[in-house]
Design a protein that fits this description.
heterodimer, A: mainly alpha, Transcription Regulator spoIIAA, 2 domains, two-stranded parallel ribbon, elongated, B: about 260 residues, alpha/beta, Rossmann fold, 10 helices
Chain lengths: ~375, ~260
């Protein structure tokens, strides 16, 4: 028996039996494997009675070696306890591994990924449209039955996603308004037409930025919150509980959020427009030397109701997109906490992308129509 | 058989002003399965974390496999010789099951060839009775019982001498739990493991534990064979071992033993 702290593999060949000894534990697995690989002769028997220590890794290597030499596992001489271990490992090895299904070459996997992505996009679009229909149908069925209105929940979400976002929306719109004024000023100064900074800011905020900024902010802030709230409920089976209690999760969870955004997003975008104009005003007064009353009268000349309505008409659409994507992603959560995280991310990405895409399409449409 | 693998002396742990353990002594002998029981909040998991060196106690000493754990920053050597199964497996969610089992091998035995490392990892998966092909799956695709088996495979990856199990059968159905008990016993005998097992499951306790330690009032109330512990004079122990659930577990054990 050798000291177990010492690594040893002894190969003696009296007759045609190979004698093995030393420490057959995982600490020496790599060296063991090298030695065994170098040993290519055939033996009729294996004698492992000198093996000082054996663990599952060693037993595995011993079995592999025995198989290569054509020696039966039963025929390996070992101490009783080590035999038990060897047989336990041998038994587990008998289970057949299924043939590893190869993924094919790289180009095929790439193609498969592309196909998967296209299919997922199609399924996702259908689901979103289906969810839109479901929400609208439920809304129509609920409107006439005030008993089913969830006023408290709606007001709660109006506060959370509307009122609480007010400081952030106004601050960011103010800053963007200031930046636009600066940008305009640098270009227009060359022509001595700094006054047109007012037109630029007014146009930008009335038609585009008031609504767009608000929508992007709410997509990040509210769509993620909706997805996380509903997702957490889904993963804790609360949604199922709602169903088994005979209530409709759409009425209970989706409609209050949808209505809250439908009311609050247009209101917030009014504030955002005002804040943006204020930003422009600040730059105009302090940097360009345009007096306040001139700025205001210029705004009054430029701003027409049709501009503003053009801008504001997008607000309900954005509200609907943000609320529905957020809620739908929440409902898609399956099982674990990890899924909640993934869905929340997906909700933000989808709603921001959709908001910008819809805004671009609308801009082209309004331009063609000459509105 | 009287060699103590884990040796806890005068252990005191506390969180803020709340004292969890006070003057706690415990020995775990080589080759035994020690079951640790105790009511909720008696600090079973905290004790395990203290022994593993995951939290440093306020006072007292912990020796594991002849090395002192307390006061050491990270007992790397010990990590190679101990395996831990956490409550829900604690598998790394971004890796496949096979990669999970390979993690400790990669960390501690970087000299192994990729082929051998894969073979050894697959061997553990087979030893814990996971169906072939499970290795390629992600932990989220497994059932609770399979996650525990995969966690056990990872804990066994380095052929540890000492295995820590935190409620291995919690959340499993009775049949799955009984299978897991049998698996533990088989592996323990085949690999010659010493097992520190936290459990609430009376069936597990009766089926596979050599000795039982009862935790309560911040210390080990009593430790010994099942018969010795059952006769100990304490309200909680009486309720625990002589309640209706204990009676049926005992009956099942007797039927299984005959």
């Amino acid at each position: 028996m050798k000291a177990s702290s010492q690594w040893l593999l002894e190969i003696h060949k009296p007759g045609r039996t190979l004698r093995l000894g030393g420490d057959w534990r995982i600490d020496h697995a790599a060296a063991l494997q090298r030695t065994l690989d170098d040993c290519s002769e055939d033996f009729s028997g294996l004698d492992g009675t000198d093996i000082a220590a054996l663990d599952a890794a060693g037993a595995f290597l011993l079995l592999e070696f025995a198989r290569r030499c054509g020696v039966d596992a039963e025929a390996i001489k070992l101490e009783a306890r080590q035999r038990e271990l060897l047989f336990a490992v041998a038994r587990s090895q008998e289970i057949e591994e299924p043939g590893a299904d190869s993924d094919g070459p790289l180009w095929r996997r790439g193609l498969a990924r592309l196909g998967g992505a296209v299919l997922a996009l199609k399924v996702n679009t259908f689901r979103l449209l289906g969810f839109l229909g479901l929400a609208l149908a439920t809304l129509a069925a609920t409107v006439l039955r005030p008993g089913r209105w969830r006023v408290t929940a709606t007001v709660h979400h109006m506060q959370q996603s509307g009122l609480d976002a007010l400081p952030l929306v106004s601050l960011l719109s103010f800053l963007v308004g200031a930046v636009i004024a600066f940008l305009g000023a640098t270009v227009l100064r060359d022509f001595g037409a700094e006054l047109f900074v007012v037109d630029l800011t007014t146009y930008a905020f009335l038609r585009e930025f008031g609504v767009l900024l608000t929508a992007i902010l709410l997509a990040g802030r509210t769509a993620s919150a909706f997805a996380a709230q509903i997702g957490t409920m889904k993963s804790r089976e609360e949604i199922d509980a709602i169903r088994t209690l005979g209530q409709d999760p759409i009425v209970l969870l989706v409609l209050p959020r949808l209505l809250a955004l439908l009311i609050m997003l247009p209101l917030l975008s009014v504030v955002a427009t005002l804040a943006g104009l204020l930003g422009g005003l600040t730059v105009a007064v302090f940097n360009l030397g345009i007096p306040t009353d001139l700025f205001i009268s210029r705004v009054q000349e430029t701003a027409t109701l049709s501009h503003y309505l053009t801008g504001l008409s997008k607000a309900p659409i954005f509200a609907m997109v943000i609320a529905l994507v957020g809620c739908l992603e929440g409902f898609k959560v399956a099982g674990t906490a990890q899924s909640v995280g993934e869905r929340t991310t997906s909700a933000v990405v989808q709603s921001i992308s959709l908001v910008i895409i819809i805004d671009a399409l609308a801009a082209v449409f309004f331009m063609e129509m000459g509105w | 058989m009287s060699e103590a693998v884990i040796r806890v002396r005068g252990l005191k742990t506390q969180f803020g002003t709340q004292v969890v353990h006070e003057d706690l002594d415990l020995d775990v002998q080589r080759g035994e399965i020690l079951g640790v029981v105790g009511g909720s909040g008696t600090g079973k998991s905290v004790l395990m974390r203290a022994i593993l060196g995951l939290l440093s106690p306020h006072a007292g000493s912990v020796d594991v496999l002849g090395e002192t754990v307390t006061g050491r920053r990270d007992p790397v050597k010990l990590r190679r010789r101990t395996g831990v199964l956490f409550q829900d497996g604690a598998l790394f969610s971004s890796l496949t099951v096979l990669e999970n089992v390979e993690v400790p091998l990669k960390e501690h035995f970087p000299e192994l060839s990729a082929q051998l490392r894969g073979d050894l990892a697959r061997l553990r998966l087979r030893l814990v009775g996971l169906a072939p092909g499970t290795g390629a799956k992600l932990p989220s695709e497994l059932s609770g019982g399979m996650r525990k088996r995969a966690g056990l495979a990872r804990a066994l990856a380095m052929d540890p001498e000492l295995l820590f199990l935190d409620e291995p059968t919690a959340g499993l159905d009775p049949i799955g739990a009984a299978d897991f008990d049998e698996l533990l016993k088989t592996l323990q005998q085949a690999l010659g493991l010493t097992v520190f097992l936290i459990t609430h499951d009376l069936d597990t306790l009766y089926a596979i534990c050599d000795r039982i330690a009862v935790l309560g009032k911040g210390r080990i109330l009593t430790v010994g064979t099942r018969e010795e512990v059952e006769d100990f004079d304490d309200d909680w122990i009486r309720d625990y071992f002589h309640g209706p659930r204990a009676r049926s577990a005992r009956a099942a054990q007797r039927r299984g033993g005959d």
